[in-house]
Amino acid sequence: MAARSQHGGPAANGGGAPALLPLLLLLLSAAAIIPRGDGQNLVTEDVTVVEGDVATISCRVKNSDDSVIQLLNPNRQTIYFRDFRPLKDSRFQLVNFSNSELRVSLTNVSVSDEGRYFCQLYTDPPQEIYTTITVLVPPRNLVIDIQKEIAVEGEEIELNCTAMASRPATTIRWFKGNKELTGKSEVEQWSDMYTVTSQLLLKVGREDDGVPVICLVDHPAVKDLQTQRYLEVMYKPQVRVSQNYPVQGLTREGEPLELTCAAFGKPQPTDMRWLRVDDEMPQHVVVSGSNLLISNLNKTDNGTYRCEASNAVGKSHADYMLFVYDSRAGEEGAIRSVDHAVVGGVVAVVVFAMLCLLIILGRYFARHKGTYFTHEAKGADDAADADTAIINAEGGQNNSEEKKEYFI
After folding, report:
1. How far apart are CA 261 and CA 239, in angstroms?
2. Among 9, 26, 55, 407, which residue is least crowded by beta carbons within 10 Å?
């Protein structure tokens, strides 16, 4: 009967119904046709809720005068009139009722509950304001589909991530390990739901083997929703040759040489062999699995030795260049080094001795030259003239002879 009155028609009175309708039903009928006011004395807020959760609607009066508060659904059916619930939907429950507030909860919210809910206040004139319930639906499923379960290095593979039946449409992000990648998304709408598919093209290398590719969802209804797939990449072998003996030493005539070949790939290499580049392998070379041994090196062994390894993906190799030195190569170098050090020391001593000798001789000659000039001057200071000075000079002819001896 209340539903009919919402269309403006009077409630039927017949079929044995009482002549007077209850006051409550009259009020409900009047409420359905109340014109919407400006809601100046009413306060409410919009509600956003995840499907299946609880939405709480609050109609509040700023300045209460004990007027009646009413809550209506989007079809303008009365949910609560004061603290009475005419609508037979047990999901609506009264949370609080007073002269200044009517608060109602709606449990197990579904998409069909979305819309405008009206708060009405019976004042003069009546007031009305609405609140909007928005229902969010998280993706119901998140899956990654990979084009090839096992890829080969250098190939470009396609991955697709699908997030189904969400509201609103979700945003999909891609990650390879910790690095974010860019995909291409398409959105399909089915009724009120959205299905999003994102495509990622990825060129893989051997470093991607075992790395997770993550599809992550950005959606207001859910946090940390993601799924991942681990890449499986096949690649040809990586080959490395190491010298076991001599350890970081010269390869000299008469001494042994031992090499080891290590190969890693996916799948693991099953075929490994040694060969000599541009020449035949010497007969005295012993190959045992991944090891190569030459027990007695000679200069005919000079050349490049190659280790090859292969698997289902391809073949790779690593080379070792052998140069055999003379048997005394290291010793002669050490002897020459010692000889040079000795010669240098001797030269330094000789130079030092010659410098000392020159200093001594210089001082000796300087001292005797001063003595000559001193003897020549003795007895000449008191002479009246030059001839007398020469005659009176101490020692006379003897001094001349002494001077000659000094020069000698």
Report:
1. 7
2. 407
Least confident piece of the model among 169-178, 301-310, 356-365: 356-365
Residue found under tokens 């209850």: 22
Sheet holding 315-322, edge to edge: 271-276, 303-310, 315-322
Alpha-carbon span 170 to 140, nearest angstrom? 11
Residue 393, token pair as written in the block: 């000079």
Comparing CA positions, the residue from 340, 5, 125, 262 lying closest to residue 13 is 5
Estimate to the nearest angstrom the gap between the alpha carbon of 326 and the chain centroid: 52
Residue type, 131: T
AA identity, residue 220:
P
Per-residue pLDDT tens over the stretch 280-317: 999 999 999 999 999 999 999 999 999 999 999 999 99
Three-class SS state of 90:
coil
pLDDT of res. 340: 60
Span 34-74, pLDDT tens digits: 333 345 689 999 999 999 999 999 999 998 888 999 999 99
pLDDT in tens, 103-123: 999 999 999 999 999 999 988
Tokens of 67: 């007027």
Instruction: Sheet containing 193-203: give its strands across.
Output: 141-146, 156-166, 193-203, 184-190
Segment holding 144, helix H or strand E = strand 141-146
* C-alpha–C-alpha distance, residues 152 and 160, integer Å: 19
Beta bridge partner(s), residue 241 = 261
Q: Residue 393 carries which DSSP code?
A: S
Residue 261 corresponds to which tokens in the numbers above? 């070949």
Give 111's contacts (C-beta < 8 A, 6+ positions apart).
51, 135, 137, 167, 192
* Contact between residue 135 and residue 113 where contact means Cβ atoms under 8 Å apart: yes
- On the 0-12 / 13-18 / 19+ scale of CB atoms within 10 A, 106 is buried
Whole-structure pTM over 0.70, yes or no? no
Q: Which of 272, 214, 210 is nearest to 238 (CA)?
A: 272
Question: What residues contact 255, with CB distance under 8 A and at least 6 apart?
Answer: 246, 296, 297, 327
Q: Is residue 323's pLDDT more than 50?
A: yes
